[in-house]
Design brief:
By secondary structure, this protein is of the alpha+beta class. It is built from seven helices and eight strands. It has two domains: about 60 residues, Winged helix-like DNA-binding domain superfamily/Winged helix DNA-binding domain (Arc Repressor Mutant, subunit A, Orthogonal Bundle), CATH 1.10.10; about 140 residues, 2-Layer Sandwich (Beta-Lactamase), CATH 3.30.450.40. About 40% of the residues lie in helices and about 20% in strands. GO terms for molecular function: DNA binding.
Length: about 220
């Protein structure tokens, strides 16, 4: 029974979810010690959390024994906005190969944006991985601001947003709002190494065209 007060969250479950979020946001695999430090937990507690997540395929270890997200997450995410994933993949693939950049779509989640799906180019000298599940604040980065523009119904001076070294040092992004009926506010974007040759206006225009195609055909 309850007395009308909100129930406290399950601490172990909450910690496990936080561990997955930390691993998703990390630029590289983390050791148990690094994960424990970022979670603010004792190493032994973190180890037990990791073992449980490993048992469900949600966390894996690389050759050095460091932690990464496991393949089991792909199964869980398969049906998240499945129709939207299907709709955006052709445009993401085309954009990724046209510009030699990783193309991706993010969705609004509370006060953050989370990567739903990404496509890397078939052939490029250097590409940037944008893993599904990666998230960042709504007020940082091109996808965040593009999504915030959509939520606030603000047109903006340009049809696209840009960011440089905001979310991850050394990376830049271009994004436009993606307004699809029946789906959370979203953005379609590319990410590339800061300083690389990038015709931002051309990319922004192409993203806006892709967003219109996706919205029209959804």
């Amino acid at each position: 029974m309850t007395d009308g007060r909100p129930e406290a969250p399950l601490q172990t479950l909450s910690r496990g979810i936080s561990a997955l979020e930390v691993l998703a946001a990390a630029d590289e695999p983390l050791s148990i010690g690094e994960l424990a430090s970022r979670l603010g937990l004792h190493r032994s507690i973190t180890y037990r959390i990791v073992r449980t997540l490993e048992g469900h395929g949600l966390v894996a270890r690389d050759a050095a024994g460091d932690l990464t997200l496991g393949a089991g997450l792909a199964t869980l995410a398969r049906n998240v906005s499945r129709d939207l994933q299907t709709a955006v993949l052709p445009e993401l693939t085309a954009i990724a190969n046209e510009f030699g950049m990783t193309a991706f779509v993010t969705l609004l989640d509370a006060q953050e944006v989370v990567t739903l799906v990404s496509v890397e180019p078939r052939a490029a000298v250097a590409t940037v991985a944008q893993r599904p599940g990666t998230r960042h604040a709504l007020d940082r980065g091109a996808p965040g601001r593009a999504t915030r523009r959509l939520v606030a119904r603000e047109p903006g001076e340009l049809p696209y947003e840009t960011s440089h070294d905001e979310v991850t040092r050394g990376l830049s992004s271009v994004a436009v709002p993606l307004d699809v009926p029946g789906q959370p506010p979203a953005a379609i974007a590319v990410v590339y190494l800061t300083g690389g040759v990038a015709e931002v206006d051309v990319i922004g225009t192409r993203l806006a065209e892709a967003a219109e195609v996706i919205r029209r055909d959804f």
